[in-house]
Amino acid sequence: MDKDFWVKLKSQLLEFLIEIGPELIYSLVTFILGIFFIKIIMRLLKGALKKSKTELSLKTFVESLSIFLLYGFLFFIIGSILGIKTTSFIAVFGAAGIAIGLALQGSLSNFAGGVLILVFKPFKVGDLIHVNNNLGFVEKIDILYTRIKTFDGRIITMPNGNVSNSDVDNRTMEKYRRIDLNLKFSFDTDIDEVRQMIVNGMNRHPKLAKHLPVDVWLDEIGEYQMKLKARCWVESVEYWPAYWEQLEAVKKELDREGIKIPIPKHAIYKEE
């Protein structure tokens, strides 16, 4: 009986392979050719996006989405070759889509967030942004994630869903950005004299936006000192180097003129 069972099983297996064999071969050939054509299509798409001078952020998103759709279409064709009816195929994909959607709600939120980022453009690749306590240059906007590079060389990958629902401080969207320096002086310092010194020092910076004002104002009268705010404008991409250079330039100008930064002092009186 055992021998008859194995003979029958072998016969049924051979019949199954003979019946479905051509479809398996066709499916394998289709899969190999499909991958080949997908690579060609993606190469042509990348070339077209490059020639059209599409924004890098949109380019990476379109490429990621195209790969997803092309492979989905390839598997649909393979399923049709294997004899899966279109209605059944759609039903299976629909059920799978619901199950995957429930399991991957976060990923769907990230996809929607990526679409919102590309539509409303709060930032693009190359911008300096501050979001979720992270400051860095946008390296890549993918279908699900946004990647930024910090000043100290760290790569931070953030879900698009979180980014699209957060306050984004884009520090390079505007061409020019204002530098604010907070300075302290003793009460006996001549404001007009110090103002001219600071303006002279800041005006020497080579990357200063000459068409925008350089000004110095009394900002606060404190308990032991007065506080001045010095302001100038530079291109946004030059902000941090210019900030440090201007701070140093003002300090050197004050030193040349013999102006000292006040040091808090406490007077102690002895009762007799």
Automatic annotation (TrEMBL):
Coiled coil: none annotated. Keywords: Cell membrane, Membrane, Transmembrane, Transmembrane helix. Pfam families: MS_channel_1st (PF21088), MS_channel_1st_1 (PF05552), MS_channel_2nd (PF00924), MS_channel_3rd (PF21082). It comes from the Bacteria. It is a multi-pass membrane protein. Gene3D superfamilies: 1.10.287.1260, 2.30.30.60, 3.30.70.100. Residues 107-171 form the Mechanosensitive ion channel MscS domain. The chain crosses the membrane at residues 24-45, 65-84, 90-120. It is found in: Cell membrane. The keyword Membrane applies. Residues 66-105 form the Mechanosensitive ion channel transmembrane helices 2/3 domain. Residues 181-261 form the Mechanosensitive ion channel MscS C-terminal domain. Belongs to the MscS (TC 1.A.23) family. This is Mechanosensitive ion channel protein MscS.
